[in-house]
Specification:
Largest interface: A-B, 49 and 52 residues
Strand content of chain A: under 5%
Order of helices and strands of chain A: HHHHHHHHH
Largest sheet of chain A: none
Radius of gyration of chain A: 22 Å
Distance between the termini of chain A: 57 Å
Strand content of chain B: under 5%
Distance between the termini of chain B: 49 Å
Radius of gyration of chain B: 21 Å
Shape of chain B: elongated
Oligomer: heterodimer
Helix content of chain A: over 70%
């Protein structure tokens, strides 16, 4: 009897908690969109954040994306030989997979673990040391000061990072297919032209920008909710990384599904 | 000069992480941890990431189905959709996904926990009491991450097949029977072995990095935060590199022993 109550209690509490979290998150999204169009444009802050998000993440992203591209082309060669006993289409397919999925998603996941965790830790520390209250007392709107520059920088930064990651990915796939799998460069480029259209790159950039929209908002959300103490900051960081990763994967699926009707 | 210093510190870090790994193995050989503690940790790790992994697995299966539909449509080979999507998930995407999810959730949690223990000198207290922190604290967590990753891999694969069936039906009009029929033909034993080996290697890397980063935390609360962020980033880099290495070695091995892949 008591056990039954405990289960009900647990379920109700977790439903209420997640409902509250979602409403607060939506409020944060709406607030930051509204604040984004308000006059004092913090260009300096935005450029600083852009440097942190895009420029400083670039080496690690390029490094990881290179290896991911090699794996993709090896695996797609394996599968093509398995099913249609012919791997002449591999360059085109691998390039399509890179442009449609890999470039944007791998970039976004890496940025989440680096930048998202950083933002959550920073905002959480500001929260527990009462710097956010201090800002409010000085007449500065916290969302305008903290969230909006990061949001703008992250959307722009991820769009640019996605383009660079895609190009480097394609180049590495090209090198691997020529050196290791024995395709000529002409074959690779023919496959590219046959399977890839300009709209694929545009879709990829849109995906990157959407992921860039999600990452700072989720991190700031968990940062603002941060409980006091050092453990609270750690918890906020972990939660923000996990939540952004899951949201990125779900969003990726939704966007892929929508884009599949346009091609 | 600056880049040389960075390179030097990276090599330093990798070396000491490897030494730490060897230490853990030695402890495992000589003084295995208590069974109760190990099972408790396995239960904790698995339950912590059950929902996340299931959700991510479902959507990854759906994404694979969408992408393979677009590719297979060119050949009119939509019947192979189920086999191909499952094969790609088993060989490649599944282990990678589980490792990424675990890196974000369990890896960060473990390094934060161990880092807090280190900073508040609990690890030193354990040593003072005459126990070995490597054996009592690190080893159960290390083994639990490796064991739990296999359970989570199984869950993720099942969920991904579910997602693939749903999207295959919606987008490509492939029925459930047709989706499932080609799976045994295309997913061979070597593919499953490939996936399991990858999963094991990723789990070892994740477990080593997060326990190492937590164990060597310095500098108070800020140091713990830094350790958590460093864990996530270096685990992901390590996993991607290991992924390439295993794919490459498997490819070379197949070519050497069988001649051509088929």
């Amino acid at each position: 009897m008591i056990k039954g109550y405990a289960v009900l209690d647990f379920v109700g509490k977790s439903v209420m908690d997640s409902y509250q979290g979602v409403t607060q998150f939506i409020q944060l999204v709406v607030d930051s969109l509204a604040e984004g169009f308000r006059p004092p444009l913090r260009i300096r802050e935005t450029v600083q954040q852009l440097y942190f998000i895009a420029v400083q993440s670039l080496p690690i992203i390029l490094f990881c994306v290179c290896f991911a591209a090699m794996v993709t082309i090896l695996e797609s060669s394996f599968h093509m030989k398995l099913v249609i006993q012919n791997d002449s289409m591999v360059p085109g397919f691998a390039a399509m997979l890179i442009l449609r999925e890999l470039g944007a998603v791998v970039t976004a996941l890496l940025v989440t673990s680096r930048v998202g965790a950083g933002i959550a830790a920073e905002v959480g520390t500001m929260k527990i040391t009462e710097q956010i209250d201090a800002l409010r007392m000085l007449g500065i709107r916290p969302i305008h000061y903290i969230v909006v520059p990061r949001l703008i920088a992250s959307v722009i930064g991820l769009a640019i990072l996605t383009i660079i990651a895609n190009l480097v990915c394609l180049f590495v796939a090209f090198l691997v297919s020529e050196i290791y799998l024995g395709f000529t460069s002409g074959l690779f480029i023919t496959g590219l032209v046959r399977f890839i259209h300009f709209q694929d790159l545009v879709f990829s950039i849109i995906k990157g920008a959407c992921f860039g929209f999600v990452i700072p908002l989720v991190s700031c959300h968990f940062g603002f909710l941060c409980a006091s103490g050092a453990e609270g900051v750690g918890l906020a960081t972990t939660r923000s990384v996990v939540a952004s990763s899951v949201i990125i994967i779900i969003l990726d699926f939704v966007l892929s599904f929508v884009f599949s009707f346009f091609s | 000069m600056n880049s040389l210093v960075i390179l030097n510190s990276v090599i330093d870090e990798i070396g000491s992480a490897l030494l730490f790994f060897v230490n853990i193995l030695k402890t495992l050989m000589r003084r295995p941890c208590s069974r109760d503690e190990l099972f408790q940790q396995i239960w904790k790790v698995t339950m912590q990431s059950l929902v996340t992994t299931g959700l991510a697995g479902f959507f990854v299966g759906a994404i694979m189905a969408v992408q393979f539909t677009l590719q297979m449509r060119e050949f009119g080979a939509l019947g192979y959709l189920g086999g191909l999507a499952t094969s790609a998930t088993v060989r490649e995407v599944g282990p990678l996904l589980i490792a990424f999810m675990l890196a974000g959730k369990v890896g960060a949690f473990t390094s934060a926990e161990l880092g807090t223990m280190r900073v508040t000198e609990q690890l030193d207290a354990i040593r003072c009491l005459g126990a070995d922190p490597l054996q009592e604290i690190i080893l159960p967590r290390f083994l639990a991450i490796i064991c739990a990753s296999f359970f989570l891999l199984g869950l993720g694969l099942v969920m991904s097949i579910g997602g693939g069936i749903l999207l295959g039906g919606l987008l490509a009009q492939v029925s459930v029977e047709e989706y499932l029929r080609h799976i045994p033909a295309i997913v061979t034993l070597s593919s499953i072995a490939n996936g399991l080996v990858k999963c094991f290697i990723f789990a070892v890397i994740l477990a080593t990095v997060c326990t190492y980063k937590g164990y060597t935390t310095t500098g108070g609360a800020k140091g713990v935060g830094l350790a958590v962020v460093n864990t996530a980033v270096s685990t992901m880099v390590g996993i991607v590199v290991a992924d390439w290495l295993t794919s490459f070695i498997a490819d070379v091995a197949i070519r050497a022993f069988v001649g051509s892949p088929f």
